[in-house]
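If you are new to this repository, start here. Below is one unmodified record pulled from the training split, so you can see the exact layout before writing a loader.
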Amino acid sequence: MGMEVAADVLAIRNLMVNLCLIGTPAAGDGAWVLVDAGLPYSAGIILRAVRQRFGREVRPAAIVLTHAHFDHVGACKQLAERWDVPVYAHERELPHLTGKDDYPTPDPSVGGGLMARLSPLYPRGAIDLGARARPLPRGGEVPHLPGWRWIHTPGHTEGHVSFFRDADRLLIAGDAFTTVRQESVLAVLSQRPEIHGPPMYFTTDWEAAERSVRKLRALKPTVAVTGHGVPMSGELLERGMLLLAQNFERLAVPDHGLYVHQTE
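And here is the target side for that same chain:
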């Protein structure tokens, strides 16, 4: 199950969204980390992946989140309680993880695909993890993942972050950009790899989103796991990120919509 993008990083596709297990197959209890938590009702899928990866069900040290949209935190509460572990996210995402604030209304008018048109039906309410929800350290360290750092990449959400390991330039980008046209059902089903901006229907600050893509492009990642689409590497990734960064407004920003031309 999943695609091994490094000896200690397994990317798992949960229907239309990706999550990662970071830890070698020999990792023991408390010696690995889950990045994002998939769609609602996906706890069983994630637990099976854990058992296949590590040979048994072992607890992670923590769950870390790129952001708190429903397709990235679907099993978060159930798993955090089962494993009795903390959940780390950017401080601006915490209201969505402590029951205090729902996400803004999605925009079904952008993107032109069925996934976009259905977006008003997607859950946008906050979940409540209580004291388990904790802010990522302000210095950029990722708890329990030495060698990794988190990078604030807002735009898709205010508190969106990406995770980067300098040693091998491996990037977990969340929804800062994608490798599939997420607005289209046909594209989601085919999973043909091509770099796109963040999912249009849930992105609320396009100027910040453009700055985030340029920030990630400057890292020159060799491998990228995005929240939607297949992991990408090498020249295809390099060319695609360069093209997106240089032509973001033309390629990624809708020409109309609720959140077009809004700033931070």
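Two things worth knowing about this chain: The mean pLDDT is 93. The two ends are 39 Å apart (CA to CA).
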